[in-house]
Specification:
The chain folds into two domains: about 180 residues, Rossmann fold (3-Layer(aba) Sandwich); about 100 residues, Rossmann fold. Helix content is about 35%, strand content about 15%. It has eight helices and ten strands. A six-stranded mixed β-sheet has the order 1-2-10-7-8-9, sandwiched between helices. Helix 1 packs across helix 5. The termini are far apart.
């Protein structure tokens, strides 16, 4: 029986790991999906938001009466809105009309103040990312608010180390080699980096695959462009990225990611966003490379409830 929780923040983490049953490779490994939609706001970002705020509280960067500011494509902002609502910190979010309306509404309902930066293309671009970062920097400078600065904040890595331990303990198989491959799309690169570091503590041979939009393949050395996979593909090589994190990089288009998100809902009953669709496409590719005796893990980053206003 579950014990009484002190507050909603204690419900973050310990999400389920389930196998895909129908969307599987013809001659590849089994694919396990970490259901981060089970977190309180329906996103894995709850983990990192709590970690960043708690670290700042612990070392005095954020004290009683303080406030918080961040730039975000949506999910980080919603998660920070939840954490700040529970802890009583005013929150100022810089975001954009390029992102799902549901996320912006969710932030406001949780009490965040929003500043909207217009996207000229209607999608995620390098210019949009840099404009949001600069707007958040100015707010922090003018107000004295604590700037979580997710693109540079290493405090969040601890949250993803813990997530890696959950994945390892949940996966079934031989103790010496439970997981053969891990796949994750790259936004700040913190989740890929943190989980990869955590899993490699158990098995140095795990194959790590990074996923990026094919319209903006900057990690692969390509040119930045506009795409509509929320929360990933900043348009430049992000500070937390390291060249030795991933063994390979897979490119997935917005169209492919959306189509797979729809398949996951209709064939697996898993209602997820576009970044999850991209993850599963890349996981299928890796599963075929690893073969039928292996295990591949990827992440259901968030719930599709955040994207109902988007075309399907």
């Amino acid at each position: 029986m579950n014990k009484l929780k002190q507050d909603i923040l204690q419900c973050i983490g310990n999400t389920s790991l389930v196998p895909l049953r129908k969307i599987v490779p013809k001659n590849g490994s089994r694919i396990l999906l970490k259901l981060e939609s089970e977190n309180p706001t329906g996103s894995m970002k709850d983990r990192m938001a709590l970690a960043m705020i708690e670290a700042a509280e612990a070392d005095g960067r954020l004290t009683a009466g303080g406030s918080v500011v961040e730039y975000t494509g949506g999910s980080t902002g919603v998660s920070l809105s939840l954490v700040c609502a529970v802890k009583g910190y005013p929150l100022h979010i810089v975001t954009s009309d390029a992102f799902a309306r549901e996320k912006l509404d969710h932030m406001k309902i949780l009490g965040a103040r929003l500043q909207i930066v217009h996207s000229e293309s209607g999608g995620m671009t390098e210019k949009l990312t840099r404009d949001m970062v600069e707007a958040a920097r100015i707010i922090a400078e003018e107000t004295g608010a604590f700037w979580t600065d997710q693109l540079n904040n290493k405090d969040q890595l601890v949250a993803y180390h813990k997530m890696a331990e959950e994945i390892w303990s949940q996966a079934e198989g031989q103790p010496e080699k439970k997981i053969d491959g891990f796949v994750q799309s790259v936004g700040t690169a913190a989740s890929l980096r943190g989980i990869a570091e955590g899993l490699r503590r158990h098995n140095q041979q795990i194959r790590i695959v990074a996923v990026e939009p094919s319209e903006s393949p900057v990690l692969s050395g390509g040119r930045p462009g506009s795409h509509k996979i929320d929360g990933v593909g900043a348009g430049f090589v992000v500070p937390l990225w390291r060249g030795d994190i991933a063994d390979q990089i897979e490119q997935v288009s917005t169209e492919e990611a959306m189509a797979m998100a729809n398949r996951l809902a209709r064939e697996e009953g898993l209602f997820a966003g576009t970044s999850t669709g991209a993850n599963v496409i890349a996981a299928l590719r890796l599963a075929e490379q690893l073969g039928p005796d292996a295990t591949t893990v990827t992440v259901m980053c968030d719930t599709g409830m955040k994207y109902l206003s988007r075309e399907t």
